[in-house]
Amino acid sequence: MKLGKFNILLIAIIFMFGTVACSAKQTTESNPQSAEQANTINETTANADELTPEPGAKLLVWDGKDGLPFLTEIAKQFTEQYNIPVEVQEQGAPEQMTKMKTDGPAGLASDLLVLPHDNLSEAVAGGFVLPNDFFEEETKAEFQETAVNAVTKDGILYGYPRNMETYALFYNKELVKESDLNSWDDIIRFSKTYNDVGAKKYGFMMQLNNFYFAYPFFSGYDGYVFGDNNTNPEDIGLNNAGAVEAMKYFQAMREILPMEAADATGDVKTALFQEGKLAINLDGVWNIGNFSKLPFEVGMVPLPKFPNGKVPNTFAGVKAYYVSAYSKYPNAAKLFARYVTTKEALLKNFEVTGFIPARKGLENEAAIKDNAMVSGAIQQFEHSIAMPSIFEMQQVWAPMANALELIWKGEDPQKTLDNAVKSIKEGIATLHQ
């Protein structure tokens, strides 16, 4: 069964924002603000002073490498305003989930996490996160419904939405024309003429063993993860006839990317692109800010059609802040989560990192409206589906990563995918024992 599209809901994230006024609540004397500070923070945090931080509060925040530049800066501002020290540490989402299981009970975990929405089911089941209760009303009013729903589990709002994200094709305009990106066959033809492996010059590169980025090959050939719009884990479509055909095409692309799947890492790919040695880079919209600062002009276009004429879907997700259930200072943590998701904060985050805000009311901001790469992201959102968020999705990533590596090496796609689906089903079965 085919997966449903995000359709109009996701594209609305960028240019169909509504204008929602936030009612200011009375502030207390415990956290006085100057008029200048109040203007900077805007009325969206006017009620924040009614949430009194715990005495002696100090916070630890975990986020991935790409989010650190903004968080480090905004943490200093938060400390200046509320006199609450904030430490920011690099921890990717998978590492955060792993560490919560051990560091949480030991009192060593962070006070705030930054997670993609597909981790929420596991986080709730593990008792890792607290509901977004104090700012629930404001969050629901000020953020896109799609984002709010993504960070809600069983009717309870947990997250403080930060950004929506997907991926598409970044390209170096000095090396390749947009007309060479009309189809995957066009990309292959261009790469054959551009490649110089000895000089580490490549026409195209992607993370080959990461199912998140490889999913468009499946969706482009009618493969799918779970049935019933990703809600039925008993129906897995990752080894159907279309998925096998997709992996045959994927496998054939080794001709233009002659390297081991494990060697095509995000760091290697990014470095080559920044050095002007990689012409076409399949990567996430979170790199828009970074790639906007390069000495050459970068474009961004949606993923093109496959030889069967079908335009693939990408995964799309919502990243959000979550307050740890193990935090000794939950009030202070909630205050920080609110602070870093104000209009001003998220706009600054976009300017620093390229994260496309999930908040309403930013569509006319020059930094967003005038960025051509964001326009490419908008087009890709039209061909994106929400990454499966059911608990069983966590059993998909490792078997599919292993399958992609084997297929890239030349193993039989049908046999390899059959084994991967078997492993996924076995993993799911253990969840329900």
From TrEMBL:
Annotated signal peptide: 1-24
UniProt keyword Signal, yes or no: yes
Keyword Oxidoreductase (UniProt): no
UniProt KW keywords: Signal, Transport
Pfam families named in the record: SBP_bac_8 (PF13416)
Lineage: superkingdom: Bacteria
Similarity remark: Belongs to the bacterial solute-binding protein 1 family.
PANTHER family: MALTOSE-BINDING PERIPLASMIC PROTEIN, MALTOSE_MALTODEXTRIN-BINDING PERIPLASMIC PROTEIN
Name of the protein described by the UniProt record: Maltose ABC transporter substrate-binding protein
Organism from which the protein derives: Paenibacillus tianjinensis
